[in-house]
Target: Helix-turn-helix domain-containing protein
Amino acid sequence: MAATGLVDSVLMATHWAFVRPLSKQYPTCQFVAHPSCLQEDAVWSTGSMMGGFDALLEMLARDRGDAFAQLCATHLLISAPEKLTPILPGHRNHHDDAILRLQEWIESHHAQAITIERMGREIGMTERTLKRRFQLATRLSPTVYIQKVRVDQAKKLLLATDLSIKAIAYEVGYENVSFFVRVFKTHAGATPSEWRKGEQAGSL
Model:
């Protein structure tokens, strides 16, 4: 794509190992190491295999809505339940490296108690700066992002396991089951039990 001259001055994602050689070979293009995907104008680029999934889900989210893209991610990307990774279409299309690192950290620590203070320590940012940059990059507050990660993980466990709602609440980071149910309903439009029954009925 870079050789065509059609993406001159367009910021494009690539693997970190290729940033320097590509920049040297195509000096009119801008390359950045990015673990997910970037979109600028009509150009999509990815820096990893999973970035391709992120780009696909982002396109689905824009065309059919975030709920549909989330459902596709839930159904298509399930492998071993213990290795399920939350995928949130539409919230990685940025190039703030610190926030991308924080998003990855949140997704791998979502079952733990996560505070703004702890997140700030992880990436060396004040709480005020973290909140501002996170909102600017992802269009979500850190708190809402954590909730979405946990709900996304809960959906996968609801589909892939027979765990009780209480057990799933604990698995995704909630000790208060009633609060988990309220958060889940806020983001999914149904309680965990209702959502599981609906998905199981739809797959028959």
